[in-house]
Amino acid sequence: MKNRKPLLFSPLIVLLLSIIMIGGCKKEEDTNTPSACANGVKDGDETGVDCGGSCNACTGADIYIVGNEFNGASTVAKCWKNGIEVNLTGANNARAYSVFVANNDVHIVGDNYYSTFASYWKNGIPVNMFSTSSSSKAEDVYVSGTDVYIAGSSTSYFATYWKNGTEIHLTDGNHYAQATGVYVSGNDVYICGTENTNTKRVAKYWKNGVAVTLSDTNNLADAYDIFVQGNDVYVAGSEVIDGWGFPQYLTAKYWKNGNPISLNDGTLYSAEAFSIAVSGNDVYVAGFSESSGIMKAVLWKNGTETTLPIGNSPGSANSIAVSGNDVYAAGSEPNGSFMAAKYWKNGMPVIVSDTTKNMSATSIFIVAH
Fold first, then answer.
1. How large a percentage of the chain has pLDDT more than 90?
2. How far is residue 303's CA from residue 317's CA, in Å, rounded to a whole number?
3. How far apart are CA 342 and CA 365, in angstroms?
4. Fewer C-beta within 10 Å: the chain N or C terminus?
5. How far from each other are the two terminal CA atoms of the chain, in whole angstroms?
6. pLDDT in tens, 94-114
């Protein structure tokens, strides 16, 4: 259902509103003289961008969320900054999966829904960083310095990442594979994803192109997100025990340095882990948990599961971020007759989408200031 009343606005007002809204996910110009505490980068001992540590204390945060609207006629990629919505694609079919903010630039990746071209937006403007292949997909983005890394798949079969537009294959193309998450630490590039064998699907990650198998090759598994802290590599995903057997229950889990840690037992109900973040000694995972047909958005902290309010079904937490003492998760839950895009800050829900349309939130990024 659409609730549009275009006749209420004059063309001038519509133009002014469009300029104001588009600014939310575009670059913020910094007119101050650059210094260690005013360079638009989280560096040194800062706990946020240009704040904390030796700089002034962080006093707030900008919340960036990307997701999608399903309006019956098309799928529209969207970005919200502090609740202000921007359409990335107008009425064209597209999906947004990941957002990363660095140096005051907003980087978003996704795909065109029907033609499945990988898509990349910088400050709300589409940028062609990919080949003309119609079977590419961009799943995640990470920025390190001036380098932009994008994880996804190309030509249907290759797990792929792009560095500044240069396409790098991680697999040989003999079996279907995809890259789903990317993290850069120093000079090392970490990519997680999956690769099919003849009968199974294997979760793995690659460090500088070298593959590390995570899951039991007798099962079906997925790896969705990757996080690196020091020498420790964390990957979030799921695994189906007993392969193709029935009933099939998904086991939410993460791997730390290749060692699996299950978040549910996988025998009585299903769960999946979609996103992971580490802060100090605490490991945070976002996903869903399902039992008796009830699917709810959940957060795990050090293995302890918490259902995120309001707890409507079907709900899912798709992305997680930690900033200082605050924990943010983004996802979707029913709100009346429609699915609503929302985020939770320390467990408190905030709806960011139009509640008269079906929407979902796929990724969240926090910029402390």
1. 61
2. 16
3. 13
4. N
5. 39
6. 999 999 999 999 999 998 866
